[in-house]
Design a protein that fits this description.
- The protein has an eight-stranded parallel barrel, surrounded by six helices.
- Helix content is 36%, strand content 19%.
- Helix 2 packs parallel to helix 3 (133-146).
- It has helices spanning 2-26, 66-83, 133-146, 190-201, 227-230, 247-258, 275-280, 309-325, 343-359, 387-395, 405-408, 430-434, 438-441, 465-472, 475-484, 492-509, 518-523; strands at 43-53, 58-62, 88-92, 100-105, 117-121, 125-130, 161-170, 176-182, 207-211, 213-214, 217-218, 263-270, 330-334, 363-367, 380-383, 399-402, 450-457.
- The chain contains 17 helices and 17 strands.
- The longest helix has 25 residues, at 2-26.
- With 524 residues, the protein is α/β, with parallel strands linked by helices.
- The structure holds ligand TNX.
- Ligand TNX is lined by residues 299, 336-337, 367, 384, 409, 411, 422, 458, 460.
Length: 524
């Protein structure tokens, strides 16, 4: 009797061993569900099986919302190049059928907010639920990461497309998770900005701040002040021909962002960083004379004349035109490094500009120096340099966006041998960029005071997509995790393992990134 039982148990054991090893061979990613996703989700429970995506898999959309159908098409477009599958997208009110990816708006707990999602993968159906389409969109980015890395290829791969089963609950810790692109120092066209947004969306970033004007170039058409682009847009750092977005092009950028749940935040920097404007219109200068166009990389030498009436006409027209083409709630007015503006002039200027922004129904964001003015409680302070400025802002009840230069500035060199970039805030390697906690970064500033974080890419030394990607990746992946994942779930050791896998994905995607030197090998 005993012997029989033992034999039986042995057979059972053998059966499970064979079964387990087979299914593992089928999908090597199985049980590694929690080692592949960036940003790390709130909870991941693997169930050890797999869903097999094939040409007959359907994308089912609950209901007939156009926005949801659009997301269904977006998902299909992500899947198509590498698999060759033209997945059918269907709206339905019935229960989902086998072999489908079923996306639906449902009532998740309030902590999931607009951006959270619940992704449940069984061997038969993939269920993706959220309170809003935005959450579905983020859930799709997670699903994409659970697919084999070859899904990122732009040509058809000979592969079986297994998705590890399990359940993921997820929502972000900060609502503002952004990147900034300086299109003034060097101009970048619409197509590049779109590519940039695709890269951001893959890591659940939801804000793109465009630095649209500076000493070296004015990059957005303002119909009431045409010389801004005609003259001010005609050069860039190094003497190249510059460029600008027409308002139609800007709208195209905004729309592309909306389809990826990325809000565009336009910045017109003032009263300093204004040489391109001062070169376009003599009346904005104290001297009454236009300045020369500037193609160097110094900062802090220019200022609008804050005592002239015409300056406020200029600011009003710009903010009105920008507000009309910007559906997002924010207008960024710069306000940094106004070394050529006296404090007695700077403060009333910022106060007046704030009134203009509010009168246009927008919320003002400014670099941390604006806290010296009488900022309103709904004005947002973007910390980059002085911690005490951020503290003053919080004491005035403003919220803060954290962009500490020594952690988030993507134009800082990685190390002493990085060819691109600057180093005034020190080198920022991958570990530096990842290892910090927003809510512990500035004393007296806690999670409630922080709207989120943003990674600026200043482009004094950056001229094309390849260079841009090199400065972004992989640091920005770390920033994306900091913005999304609560501090207690993050640690460098665990992150490194996941990052390595993402570097392979970037390679397949054809994205350039920092890697090939000894310093890097020591870090990862
Ligand atoms: C400081 S950060 C600036 C920019 C430069 C950047 C270069 C900030 C608000 N102002 O004008 O491009 O450093 O790293």
């Amino acid at each position: 009797m005993n012997l029989k039982l033992n034999n039986y148990s042995f057979l059972l054991l053998l059966f499970f061993m064979v079964f387990a090893s087979c299914s593992r061979r089928g999908n090597p990613q199985m049980n590694l569900l929690d080692e592949i996703i960036i940003p790390k989700p709130v909870s991941v429970i693997a169930s050890g099986n797999s869903f097999k995506l094939n040409a007959n898999t359907k994308i089912l959309v609950k209901g007939e919302s156009e926005e949801m159908l659009k997301i269904g098409h977006y998902l299909a477009s992500l899947i198509k190049p590498a698999t060759g599958f033209d997945l059918e997208i269907k709206s339905t009110l019935k229960k989902p059928k086998l072999n489908s990816i079923y996306i639906s708006i449902s009532n998740l707990e309030s902590k999931f907010g607009n951006e959270g999602y619940n992704l449940k993968i069984t061997d038969k159906i993939v269920f993706l639920k959220a309170n809003s389409p935005e959450g579905i969109f983020h859930g799709i980015q997670t699903l994409r990461q659970i697919l084999p890395k070859e899904i990122e290829a732009s040509t058809k791969q000979n592969k079986l497309w297994f998705i590890a089963t399990g359940e993921i609950h997820d929502y972000p810790q900060y609502e503002y998770r952004g990147a900034m692109l300086d299109v003034s120092r060097h101009f970048f066209g619409v197509d590049l900005v779109k590519k940039y947004m695709d890269l951001l969306a893959a890591y659940k970033l939801n804000k793109l701040h465009l630095h649209l004007s500076d000493d070296q170039g004015w990059r957005i058409e303002i119909k009431s002040w045409p010389n801004l682009t005609l003259i001010g847009g005609s050069k860039e750092v190094g003497g190249g021909k510059g460029g600008f977005y027409t308002q139609e092009e800007y709208k195209e950028i905004v729309k592309y962002g909306q389809e990826r749940y990325i809000t565009i935040i336009p910045e017109i920097d003032m009263p300093g960083h204004t040489n391109a404007a001062l070169a376009s219109y003599p009346e904005l200068n104290s001297s009454g004379k236009a300045t020369e166009l500037y193609t160097g990389i110094k900062v802090g030498f220019s200022s609008l004349d804050t005592n002239k009436e015409v300056t406020y006409q200029f600011v009003s027209d710009i903010i009105r035109e920008l507000s009309e083409i910007t559906p997002g709630p924010y207008i960024h007015i710069g306000g940094d490094e106004s070394h050529a503006t006296e404090m007695k002039d700077y403060i009333p200027f910022i106060n007046k500009v704030q009134e203009i922004v509010l009168a246009n129904g927008k919320q003002m964001i400014g670099w941390d120096e604006i806290v010296h003015a009488d900022i309103k409680t709904n004005t947002i302070v973007q910390f980059w340099a002085r911690k005490e400025n951020a503290q003053i802002g919080v004491n005035k009840s403003a919220k803060v966006i954290l962009s500490p230069a020594n952690k988030t500035y993507l134009d800082m060199k990685y190390d002493s041998i990085t060819k691109l970039g600057l180093k005034w805030a020190g080198y920022v390697n991958i570990e530096d960029a990842y290892c910090w906690n927003p809510s512990k970064f500035i004393s007296g500033i806690s999670k409630n005071d922080i709207l989120g974080i943003e990674s600026p890419l200043w482009t004094e030394t950056i001229t094309n997509m390849e260079e841009l990607e090199y400065m972004l990746f992989p640091r920005i992946i770390g920033h994306a995790e900091i913005g999304w994942t609560i501090d207690s779930l993050r640690n460098w050791k665990d992150y490194k393992v996941r990052l390595k896998k993402h570097l392979n994905r970037l390679k397949i995607k054809g994205v350039n990134y920092y890697e090939e030197n000894e310093n890097f090998k020591n870090i990862l």
